[in-house]
Design goal:
The chain is of the alpha+beta class. 38% of the residues lie in helices and 17% in strands. The protein has helices spanning 2-18, 22-29, 33-47, 81-87, 142-148, 165-176, 206-210, 220-226, 231-245, 256-265, 317-327, 337-348, 354-358, 362-371, 375-382, and strands at residues 58-64, 69-75, 116-121, 124-129, 137-138, 153-159, 194-197, 204-205, 213-219, 267-273, 282-285, 287-292, 298-300. The strands form two sheets. The protein has an eight-stranded mixed β-sheet with strand order 5-4-3-6-2-1-7-8. A hairpin with a 2-residue loop joins strand 3 (116-121) and strand 4 (124-129). Helix 11 runs parallel beside helix 15. The N and C termini lie far apart (61 Å). The relative contact order is 0.11.
Length: 394
Protein backbone atom coordinates (compact mmCIF):
# COMPACT_ATOMS: atom_id res chain seq x y z
CA UNK A 1 0.00 0.00 0.00
CA UNK A 2 2.86 2.39 0.82
CA UNK A 3 4.49 1.71 -2.56
CA UNK A 4 1.20 2.33 -4.35
CA UNK A 5 0.70 5.55 -2.39
CA UNK A 6 4.19 6.78 -3.34
CA UNK A 7 3.75 5.78 -7.00
CA UNK A 8 0.40 7.56 -7.26
CA UNK A 9 1.74 10.72 -5.61
CA UNK A 10 4.57 10.89 -8.14
CA UNK A 11 2.11 10.29 -10.97
CA UNK A 12 -0.14 13.01 -9.55
CA UNK A 13 2.70 15.54 -9.62
CA UNK A 14 3.34 14.76 -13.28
CA UNK A 15 -0.36 15.13 -14.07
CA UNK A 16 -0.50 18.55 -12.42
CA UNK A 17 2.31 19.68 -14.72
CA UNK A 18 1.14 18.00 -17.94
CA UNK A 19 -2.63 18.37 -17.40
CA UNK A 20 -3.41 21.30 -15.07
CA UNK A 21 -7.18 20.99 -15.79
CA UNK A 22 -7.16 17.28 -14.90
CA UNK A 23 -9.61 17.49 -11.95
CA UNK A 24 -12.08 19.64 -13.85
CA UNK A 25 -12.02 17.29 -16.85
CA UNK A 26 -12.52 14.22 -14.67
CA UNK A 27 -15.59 15.80 -13.06
CA UNK A 28 -17.01 16.59 -16.50
CA UNK A 29 -16.25 13.04 -17.64
CA UNK A 30 -18.38 11.65 -14.84
CA UNK A 31 -21.57 12.59 -16.69
CA UNK A 32 -24.80 12.76 -14.70
CA UNK A 33 -22.89 11.85 -11.60
CA UNK A 34 -25.32 12.65 -8.79
CA UNK A 35 -28.24 11.01 -10.57
CA UNK A 36 -26.16 7.87 -11.13
CA UNK A 37 -24.30 7.80 -7.82
CA UNK A 38 -26.53 5.21 -6.14
CA UNK A 39 -26.83 3.02 -9.27
CA UNK A 40 -23.02 3.08 -9.60
CA UNK A 41 -22.52 2.00 -5.99
CA UNK A 42 -25.17 -0.70 -6.27
CA UNK A 43 -23.63 -1.99 -9.51
CA UNK A 44 -20.27 -2.37 -7.75
CA UNK A 45 -21.88 -4.14 -4.80
CA UNK A 46 -23.93 -6.38 -7.10
CA UNK A 47 -20.71 -7.41 -8.91
CA UNK A 48 -18.89 -8.37 -5.70
CA UNK A 49 -18.03 -12.01 -5.08
CA UNK A 50 -19.22 -14.04 -2.14
CA UNK A 51 -16.87 -15.87 0.19
CA UNK A 52 -17.32 -19.66 0.34
CA UNK A 53 -19.63 -19.59 3.37
CA UNK A 54 -21.79 -16.67 2.18
CA UNK A 55 -25.14 -17.29 0.49
CA UNK A 56 -26.94 -13.98 1.02
CA UNK A 57 -25.99 -10.35 0.59
CA UNK A 58 -27.56 -7.72 2.82
CA UNK A 59 -26.74 -4.05 2.31
CA UNK A 60 -27.21 -1.69 5.24
CA UNK A 61 -27.21 2.04 4.50
CA UNK A 62 -27.02 4.73 7.17
CA UNK A 63 -27.13 8.48 6.59
CA UNK A 64 -26.34 10.84 9.44
CA UNK A 65 -27.43 14.35 8.49
CA UNK A 66 -25.61 15.97 11.42
CA UNK A 67 -22.19 14.45 10.69
CA UNK A 68 -22.97 14.52 6.94
CA UNK A 69 -21.89 10.95 6.47
CA UNK A 70 -23.25 8.02 4.50
CA UNK A 71 -22.20 4.52 5.55
CA UNK A 72 -22.61 1.39 3.40
CA UNK A 73 -21.96 -2.07 4.80
CA UNK A 74 -22.49 -5.28 2.82
CA UNK A 75 -21.50 -8.95 2.60
CA UNK A 76 -18.70 -9.96 0.21
CA UNK A 77 -15.38 -11.79 -0.01
CA UNK A 78 -13.61 -8.44 0.49
CA UNK A 79 -10.93 -6.30 -1.15
CA UNK A 80 -7.58 -7.55 -2.33
CA UNK A 81 -4.66 -5.44 -3.61
CA UNK A 82 -5.92 -5.63 -7.20
CA UNK A 83 -9.23 -4.08 -6.09
CA UNK A 84 -7.40 -1.29 -4.24
CA UNK A 85 -5.27 -0.62 -7.32
CA UNK A 86 -8.33 -0.63 -9.62
CA UNK A 87 -10.60 1.61 -7.52
CA UNK A 88 -7.87 4.25 -7.25
CA UNK A 89 -6.90 3.99 -10.91
CA UNK A 90 -7.93 5.87 -14.05
CA UNK A 91 -6.06 3.72 -16.53
CA UNK A 92 -6.94 0.13 -15.71
CA UNK A 93 -9.94 -2.00 -14.88
CA UNK A 94 -9.90 -5.27 -12.96
CA UNK A 95 -13.06 -6.39 -14.78
CA UNK A 96 -11.71 -8.41 -17.69
CA UNK A 97 -14.89 -10.49 -17.83
CA UNK A 98 -18.58 -10.02 -18.60
CA UNK A 99 -18.92 -7.39 -15.87
CA UNK A 100 -18.80 -3.78 -16.99
CA UNK A 101 -16.46 -1.11 -15.69
CA UNK A 102 -14.21 1.51 -17.21
CA UNK A 103 -10.90 2.58 -15.74
CA UNK A 104 -12.05 3.46 -12.24
CA UNK A 105 -14.11 6.41 -13.48
CA UNK A 106 -17.42 4.98 -12.28
CA UNK A 107 -16.59 4.97 -8.58
CA UNK A 108 -15.20 8.49 -8.85
CA UNK A 109 -18.73 9.76 -9.40
CA UNK A 110 -18.98 9.75 -5.58
CA UNK A 111 -16.53 12.66 -5.45
CA UNK A 112 -19.01 15.02 -7.09
CA UNK A 113 -20.86 14.92 -3.76
CA UNK A 114 -18.47 13.49 -1.18
CA UNK A 115 -15.04 14.83 -0.35
CA UNK A 116 -13.70 11.68 1.26
CA UNK A 117 -14.39 7.93 1.43
CA UNK A 118 -12.96 5.42 3.87
CA UNK A 119 -12.97 1.71 3.02
CA UNK A 120 -12.64 -1.12 5.55
CA UNK A 121 -12.47 -4.52 3.90
CA UNK A 122 -10.56 -7.78 4.33
CA UNK A 123 -7.72 -6.22 6.36
CA UNK A 124 -7.44 -3.27 3.95
CA UNK A 125 -8.19 0.04 5.66
CA UNK A 126 -7.67 3.08 3.46
CA UNK A 127 -9.18 6.40 2.42
CA UNK A 128 -9.43 8.30 -0.86
CA UNK A 129 -10.02 12.03 -1.01
CA UNK A 130 -11.80 14.16 -3.59
CA UNK A 131 -8.67 16.21 -4.22
CA UNK A 132 -6.38 13.21 -4.63
CA UNK A 133 -8.77 10.53 -5.85
CA UNK A 134 -6.06 8.22 -7.20
CA UNK A 135 -4.02 8.10 -4.00
CA UNK A 136 -4.94 5.54 -1.30
CA UNK A 137 -4.02 6.55 2.25
CA UNK A 138 -3.66 3.85 4.88
CA UNK A 139 -5.89 4.18 7.98
CA UNK A 140 -4.10 3.25 11.22
CA UNK A 141 -6.68 4.69 13.65
CA UNK A 142 -7.49 1.63 15.83
CA UNK A 143 -10.71 3.17 17.12
CA UNK A 144 -12.03 3.62 13.57
CA UNK A 145 -10.94 0.13 12.53
CA UNK A 146 -12.71 -1.44 15.53
CA UNK A 147 -15.82 0.59 14.76
CA UNK A 148 -16.13 -0.13 11.04
CA UNK A 149 -14.28 -3.33 10.23
CA UNK A 150 -16.43 -6.49 10.26
CA UNK A 151 -15.05 -9.82 8.94
CA UNK A 152 -16.89 -10.97 5.80
CA UNK A 153 -18.18 -7.47 5.10
CA UNK A 154 -17.02 -4.28 3.41
CA UNK A 155 -17.75 -0.95 5.05
CA UNK A 156 -17.55 2.35 3.17
CA UNK A 157 -17.81 5.69 4.98
CA UNK A 158 -18.57 8.69 2.75
CA UNK A 159 -18.13 12.21 4.13
CA UNK A 160 -19.30 15.54 2.68
CA UNK A 161 -19.87 19.19 3.51
CA UNK A 162 -23.08 19.26 1.48
CA UNK A 163 -26.66 18.29 2.26
CA UNK A 164 -27.55 14.61 1.94
CA UNK A 165 -31.29 15.20 1.62
CA UNK A 166 -31.54 14.27 -2.08
CA UNK A 167 -29.45 11.12 -1.70
CA UNK A 168 -31.53 10.12 1.33
CA UNK A 169 -34.74 10.54 -0.71
CA UNK A 170 -33.34 8.24 -3.39
CA UNK A 171 -32.54 5.54 -0.83
CA UNK A 172 -36.03 5.87 0.67
CA UNK A 173 -37.57 5.50 -2.79
CA UNK A 174 -35.43 2.44 -3.44
CA UNK A 175 -36.34 0.57 -0.26
CA UNK A 176 -40.02 1.38 -0.85
CA UNK A 177 -39.81 -0.01 -4.40
CA UNK A 178 -40.49 3.19 -6.37
CA UNK A 179 -36.87 3.58 -7.46
CA UNK A 180 -36.64 0.10 -8.97
CA UNK A 181 -37.39 -0.04 -12.69
CA UNK A 182 -37.08 3.70 -13.37
CA UNK A 183 -33.48 4.90 -13.31
CA UNK A 184 -32.23 1.66 -11.78
CA UNK A 185 -32.91 -1.66 -13.47
CA UNK A 186 -33.85 -4.73 -11.41
CA UNK A 187 -31.23 -6.55 -13.48
CA UNK A 188 -28.53 -5.03 -11.28
CA UNK A 189 -30.10 -5.89 -7.95
CA UNK A 190 -30.24 -9.65 -8.43
CA UNK A 191 -27.16 -10.31 -6.28
CA UNK A 192 -28.41 -8.15 -3.39
CA UNK A 193 -30.99 -9.94 -1.24
CA UNK A 194 -31.99 -7.03 0.99
CA UNK A 195 -31.32 -3.29 1.29
CA UNK A 196 -32.07 -1.55 4.59
CA UNK A 197 -31.96 2.22 5.07
CA UNK A 198 -31.65 3.95 8.45
CA UNK A 199 -34.50 2.90 10.76
CA UNK A 200 -37.17 2.57 8.06
CA UNK A 201 -39.13 -0.62 8.69
CA UNK A 202 -39.76 -1.33 5.00
CA UNK A 203 -36.79 -2.64 3.04
CA UNK A 204 -35.89 -3.70 -0.49
CA UNK A 205 -36.34 -7.44 -0.97
CA UNK A 206 -35.01 -9.35 -3.97
CA UNK A 207 -37.75 -11.96 -3.51
CA UNK A 208 -40.45 -9.30 -3.75
CA UNK A 209 -38.74 -7.56 -6.70
CA UNK A 210 -38.55 -10.79 -8.68
CA UNK A 211 -42.31 -11.24 -8.39
CA UNK A 212 -42.73 -8.12 -10.53
CA UNK A 213 -40.33 -8.98 -13.38
CA UNK A 214 -39.29 -11.78 -15.69
CA UNK A 215 -35.70 -12.05 -16.89
CA UNK A 216 -33.85 -13.63 -19.77
CA UNK A 217 -30.05 -13.75 -19.97
CA UNK A 218 -28.63 -14.75 -23.36
CA UNK A 219 -25.05 -15.64 -24.28
CA UNK A 220 -24.47 -13.86 -27.61
CA UNK A 221 -22.13 -16.37 -29.27
CA UNK A 222 -23.98 -19.46 -28.05
CA UNK A 223 -27.30 -18.10 -29.35
CA UNK A 224 -25.68 -17.02 -32.62
CA UNK A 225 -24.17 -20.47 -33.21
CA UNK A 226 -27.56 -22.16 -32.77
CA UNK A 227 -28.99 -20.22 -35.72
CA UNK A 228 -26.74 -22.03 -38.22
CA UNK A 229 -27.46 -25.56 -39.39
CA UNK A 230 -24.45 -25.79 -41.73
CA UNK A 231 -21.27 -26.42 -39.70
CA UNK A 232 -19.02 -24.75 -42.29
CA UNK A 233 -21.14 -21.55 -42.33
CA UNK A 234 -21.25 -21.59 -38.56
CA UNK A 235 -17.45 -21.65 -38.17
CA UNK A 236 -16.91 -18.82 -40.66
CA UNK A 237 -19.70 -16.59 -39.31
CA UNK A 238 -18.76 -17.11 -35.66
CA UNK A 239 -15.08 -16.36 -36.40
CA UNK A 240 -16.08 -13.15 -38.22
CA UNK A 241 -18.29 -12.05 -35.33
CA UNK A 242 -15.58 -12.77 -32.76
CA UNK A 243 -13.05 -10.65 -34.66
CA UNK A 244 -15.50 -7.71 -34.68
CA UNK A 245 -16.33 -8.05 -30.99
CA UNK A 246 -12.62 -8.05 -30.14
CA UNK A 247 -12.45 -4.49 -31.52
CA UNK A 248 -13.78 -3.23 -28.22
CA UNK A 249 -11.35 -0.74 -26.71
CA UNK A 250 -11.04 -2.53 -23.38
CA UNK A 251 -9.81 -5.60 -25.30
CA UNK A 252 -6.60 -3.70 -26.17
CA UNK A 253 -5.37 -4.31 -22.64
CA UNK A 254 -6.09 -8.05 -22.72
CA UNK A 255 -4.02 -11.02 -23.81
CA UNK A 256 -5.26 -13.12 -26.74
CA UNK A 257 -6.72 -15.68 -24.35
CA UNK A 258 -8.40 -12.98 -22.25
CA UNK A 259 -10.00 -11.56 -25.40
CA UNK A 260 -11.25 -14.99 -26.39
CA UNK A 261 -12.67 -15.62 -22.91
CA UNK A 262 -14.24 -12.18 -22.84
CA UNK A 263 -16.17 -12.45 -26.13
CA UNK A 264 -17.23 -16.00 -25.26
CA UNK A 265 -18.91 -14.68 -22.10
CA UNK A 266 -20.68 -11.66 -23.65
CA UNK A 267 -24.37 -11.69 -22.78
CA UNK A 268 -27.39 -9.47 -23.14
CA UNK A 269 -30.28 -9.48 -20.71
CA UNK A 270 -33.95 -8.65 -21.05
CA UNK A 271 -36.11 -7.58 -18.11
CA UNK A 272 -39.89 -7.25 -18.53
CA UNK A 273 -42.41 -6.22 -15.84
CA UNK A 274 -45.21 -8.69 -15.15
CA UNK A 275 -47.72 -5.84 -14.96
CA UNK A 276 -48.32 -3.07 -17.44
CA UNK A 277 -46.42 0.09 -16.55
CA UNK A 278 -46.41 3.67 -17.78
CA UNK A 279 -42.66 3.88 -17.09
CA UNK A 280 -40.39 3.48 -20.11
CA UNK A 281 -37.53 1.05 -19.84
CA UNK A 282 -33.98 1.90 -20.87
CA UNK A 283 -31.05 0.50 -22.72
CA UNK A 284 -28.50 -0.22 -20.02
CA UNK A 285 -24.86 -1.01 -20.00
CA UNK A 286 -24.99 -1.60 -16.25
CA UNK A 287 -26.04 2.05 -15.81
CA UNK A 288 -28.82 3.78 -17.80
CA UNK A 289 -27.48 5.00 -21.16
CA UNK A 290 -30.11 7.73 -21.51
CA UNK A 291 -31.68 5.81 -24.42
CA UNK A 292 -35.25 4.77 -23.68
CA UNK A 293 -36.75 1.62 -25.20
CA UNK A 294 -40.18 3.34 -25.26
CA UNK A 295 -41.57 0.08 -23.96
CA UNK A 296 -41.85 -1.40 -20.47
CA UNK A 297 -38.75 -3.53 -20.93
CA UNK A 298 -35.19 -2.90 -19.81
CA UNK A 299 -32.39 -4.25 -22.00
CA UNK A 300 -28.84 -4.61 -20.74
CA UNK A 301 -26.08 -4.74 -23.35
CA UNK A 302 -22.28 -4.78 -22.80
CA UNK A 303 -21.77 -1.55 -24.78
CA UNK A 304 -18.98 0.95 -25.32
CA UNK A 305 -20.15 4.16 -23.69
CA UNK A 306 -19.08 7.77 -23.40
CA UNK A 307 -16.46 8.50 -20.76
CA UNK A 308 -19.19 9.46 -18.30
CA UNK A 309 -20.94 6.14 -19.04
CA UNK A 310 -24.29 7.84 -19.68
CA UNK A 311 -24.60 7.65 -23.50
CA UNK A 312 -23.91 5.08 -26.23
CA UNK A 313 -20.95 5.62 -28.57
CA UNK A 314 -22.56 5.70 -32.00
CA UNK A 315 -19.28 5.47 -33.95
CA UNK A 316 -18.07 2.29 -32.24
CA UNK A 317 -17.40 -0.66 -34.56
CA UNK A 318 -17.87 -2.97 -31.60
CA UNK A 319 -21.29 -1.48 -30.78
CA UNK A 320 -22.35 -1.76 -34.42
CA UNK A 321 -21.38 -5.45 -34.50
CA UNK A 322 -23.21 -6.12 -31.23
CA UNK A 323 -26.37 -4.28 -32.32
CA UNK A 324 -26.38 -6.06 -35.66
CA UNK A 325 -26.05 -9.56 -34.26
CA UNK A 326 -28.72 -8.99 -31.59
CA UNK A 327 -31.31 -6.82 -33.34
CA UNK A 328 -30.99 -7.07 -37.13
CA UNK A 329 -33.86 -9.01 -38.68
CA UNK A 330 -32.18 -9.87 -41.99
CA UNK A 331 -29.69 -12.24 -40.37
CA UNK A 332 -31.97 -15.17 -39.61
CA UNK A 333 -34.84 -15.28 -42.11
CA UNK A 334 -36.40 -11.99 -40.96
CA UNK A 335 -35.83 -12.90 -37.35
CA UNK A 336 -33.25 -11.73 -34.77
CA UNK A 337 -31.55 -13.05 -31.66
CA UNK A 338 -33.59 -10.58 -29.68
CA UNK A 339 -36.85 -11.75 -31.21
CA UNK A 340 -35.92 -15.41 -30.70
CA UNK A 341 -35.20 -14.64 -27.03
CA UNK A 342 -38.55 -12.93 -26.54
CA UNK A 343 -40.36 -15.85 -28.11
CA UNK A 344 -38.54 -18.15 -25.69
CA UNK A 345 -39.68 -15.90 -22.83
CA UNK A 346 -43.27 -16.25 -24.05
CA UNK A 347 -42.99 -20.04 -24.02
CA UNK A 348 -41.30 -20.07 -20.60
CA UNK A 349 -43.98 -17.76 -19.13
CA UNK A 350 -47.24 -18.79 -20.85
CA UNK A 351 -49.36 -17.17 -18.15
CA UNK A 352 -48.00 -13.69 -18.99
CA UNK A 353 -48.98 -11.77 -22.12
CA UNK A 354 -45.57 -10.30 -22.89
CA UNK A 355 -46.71 -8.38 -25.96
CA UNK A 356 -49.37 -6.58 -23.93
CA UNK A 357 -46.75 -5.51 -21.39
CA UNK A 358 -44.23 -4.02 -23.79
CA UNK A 359 -45.93 -0.78 -24.77
CA UNK A 360 -48.83 1.39 -23.64
CA UNK A 361 -49.40 3.03 -27.00
CA UNK A 362 -48.16 1.66 -30.33
CA UNK A 363 -48.61 4.97 -32.18
CA UNK A 364 -46.47 6.88 -29.68
CA UNK A 365 -43.89 4.08 -29.82
CA UNK A 366 -43.63 4.46 -33.62
CA UNK A 367 -43.48 8.25 -33.28
CA UNK A 368 -40.59 8.05 -30.80
CA UNK A 369 -38.70 5.68 -33.10
CA UNK A 370 -39.03 8.06 -36.04
CA UNK A 371 -37.76 10.99 -33.97
CA UNK A 372 -34.79 9.08 -32.54
CA UNK A 373 -31.31 9.20 -34.04
CA UNK A 374 -30.26 6.13 -32.03
CA UNK A 375 -29.05 3.22 -34.15
CA UNK A 376 -29.83 0.88 -31.27
CA UNK A 377 -33.45 2.02 -31.04
CA UNK A 378 -34.04 1.83 -34.79
CA UNK A 379 -32.68 -1.72 -34.99
CA UNK A 380 -34.66 -2.58 -31.86
CA UNK A 381 -37.84 -1.36 -33.57
CA UNK A 382 -37.24 -3.59 -36.58
CA UNK A 383 -37.60 -6.81 -34.59
CA UNK A 384 -40.64 -8.72 -35.80
CA UNK A 385 -42.14 -9.23 -32.37
CA UNK A 386 -42.32 -5.47 -31.75
CA UNK A 387 -44.31 -4.93 -34.93
CA UNK A 388 -47.13 -6.83 -33.25
CA UNK A 389 -47.79 -4.07 -30.72
CA UNK A 390 -50.76 -2.84 -32.73
CA UNK A 391 -52.22 -6.36 -32.92
CA UNK A 392 -52.20 -6.37 -36.73
CA UNK A 393 -49.23 -8.69 -37.15
CA UNK A 394 -48.04 -11.81 -35.36
Amino acid sequence: MQKLNKFRKNTRKQLEILAPDYDENINQANGKARDYLIPELLQNINDCKFSQDQKNRILNVQINHESKQMILQYDEIGFDFENVYSITSLGQSSKHDEREGEKGLGFKKVFTLFNNVEIYSNDFYFSISQKENTIPNWISDKEKIEKYYVPGKTTMVFSTNSSLNEIAKQWVSLVKGAYVGTTLSPIFLKNIDEIHFNDIEKFYSKKEMEKGYIFKRVNVLEAYEKTFENIFDKRIKVAELKSKLKLRKKCKYMTSQEKEDYVNKLCFEICIPTKKTSNSGYFYSTLPTGNKTHTGMNINLPLELSTGRDSILEDSQYNEALFNVIFRTDNFEKNSLFNISLEQMKMENPEINIINLLSQDFDSFKSNILKSSSIALKLFAQTRILSSFDGKQS
